[in-house]
Amino acid sequence: MIDTDALAVLLARLERFPQASLALLPTPIQALRNLGASLRGIDLWMKRDDLSGLEGGGNKTRKLEYLVGDALATGSDMLVTVGAIQSNHTRQTAAAAAKAGLKCALLHCAWTKDAGPHYRDVGNVLLSHIIGADLYFDGTERPIEDQGQLEEFTSQLKERGHRPYLIPGGASEHRLGSLGYIRCAAEIAMQAGNDGINFDYLLHCTGSGSTQAGLLAGFAALGIKTRIIGVSDDNETETKKARVKRLANDALQELDLAVRVSTKDVEVISSSSNPYGVPDADVVSGIKLLARKEGLVADPVYEGRAIRGLLNLADAGRFEKNAKVLLMHLGGSPAIHAYAGQFGKVHLEPFHA
């Protein structure tokens, strides 16, 4: 049973902040019976945040509702952010800017090598181009934790007469960055309560950290004991654990809530030894398995890692039989076109009547 008093308090605190209407909520929760049956019989469900409303969908839309709301309230005329060339975050920022009537400038960093000959022409970057964002590229190879010359980029835009609103990569290192997934935690609690489901585990991909931070903070505020497992978007976990805990507790403080997230609450695992943006054969096989069992596609950078993490945990016996597991689909499928070469050559069988 959901604590209705705690829910009312949480939602009231979230209402203190300006919010742009960008998302189509609530996103549905659907059963994945075919895939679940193949994983030692777990009761597997999926939260479809790939259907969050803006072109291509994804988790950043929830976060951007609060950041764009703040941008509009403070008189900004342009959204500015950073990401990889196939960044879901930059694509959703471009779409959010268009919907809010703002300009958009996107700085793309060389956080990973091009996955194929059309990597810079298709997928997320193509959608950002069609939407009308100004696209920039810094070709210096950097680790994903390094946001490059974002501050210098923003300063140049100011010098050109713009009033830019700076959004850090992933929309996480921002005082409002976790609020969208705190609200999502409340949404999940209400949907689960209405359907009479108590999820034992929630699993999703973790990158910049505010999705997991928001879910942890929201569940903590509501007294929900569902175990949240983040699957790293690269081969690193310790930095992410510390950041998730810090972001979660910063958000709870921002909401004037006394509860806190502890170190033992934060679980981040890695499902691949490969660096960011480089899927291995197991990640690709997991993407194919989801597609062939459920007719749904995961991208190779983020959701593919989450699927592989789910499969690895199931194989290791982490989930009890009939355990109720909620897998978050956080979007990203446009990027799969940039990784087409990872899935083998498309074969068209000649047909003759």
Describe this structure as you would to a colleague.
With 353 residues, the protein is α/β, with parallel strands linked by helices. It has 2 domains: 4-58 and 175-336, Rossmann fold, CATH 3.40.50; 76-171, Rossmann fold (3-Layer(aba) Sandwich), CATH 3.40.50.1100. It has 11 helices and 10 strands. Helix 5 links the parallel strand 4 and strand 5 (134-141). The protein is globular, with a radius of gyration of 20 Å. The relative contact order is 0.17. The model has no long low-confidence stretch (mean pLDDT 96).
Short structural summary:
With 353 residues, the chain is of the alpha/beta class. The protein is 39% helix and 16% strand.
What's the overall average pLDDT, rounded? 96
Count of alpha and pi helical runs: 11
Shape: globular
Assign the CATH architecture of the largest domain: 3-Layer(aba) Sandwich
Report, as a whole number of angstroms, the end-to-end distance. Answer: 61 Å
Helix content: 25-40%
Percentage beta strand = 15-25%
For this structure, what is the CATH class of the largest domain?
Answer: Alpha Beta
Largest sheet: 6 strands, mixed
Strand order of the largest sheet: 1-2-10-7-8-9
Total strands: the figure is 10
Q: How many structural units, i.e. domains?
A: 2
Named CATH topology of the largest domain = Rossmann fold
Radius of gyration: 20 Å
Secondary-structure element pattern, one letter each:
HEHEHEHEHEHEHEHEHEHHE
- Spans of at least 5 consecutive residues with low confidence: none
Computed structural class: alpha/beta
